[in-house]
Amino acid sequence: MADFPRIKWLNVDGQQVPFTEPQHFTGNGDETVRTGHDNPLPVANYTQDENGIWLPVSKDNPVPTQVTGSNVEFGKTENVFERKIRTESEGSRVTKPKWAKGCLIELVIHGITGSFGTDEGVEMTTFSRFKGGIGTGTRLRSVDVTKTGTIQHLWFTGVSLDDAESSNIDFKLTNYPMAEEVAIGFTIIGNFESGEGIDSEINLFWMR
Length: 208
Hints:
By secondary structure, the chain is mostly beta strands. The chain is built from no helices and 15 strands.
């Protein structure tokens, strides 16, 4: 036989108000017991099976686990700008993983055709910034590049030019700490006929 809820009456401002005692089902039919020190609430974790049914966690029905965190894998190069022939400037912002202490950004120019005057060509500008901000007061800038090769910008605390050797078109570095994101500006200035342009891509490698 089902137990009825245990009710007490409390006097509130001269009126009798019903109050239901804390209670829970025991699992034995419809029997209820008062919740308290000697009868605590039963505790169980639940997980859904393949049919969407919620089942208590047990040895035969464990909680599924997975590793969560940044979707940027350490040791893997991130392609920021895909390889294609470009005639117009582009820009992008990339969020820094929490574990990263710096990054290497590389503009690869596979081929370049067109007409370039003074102060024209390919330019890559990178700077570290807080989200919604305008930067950290410094930037790396490579300008007026008109030949194939690579441009590299290295952001890493503690490095100096004495540590670097490079045969790239242009190599720049800074030991300023990085903020929340890196802004990359890819500027192209020149005159291009049909089929001409800059066969290029930009890759980024996070460092820790």
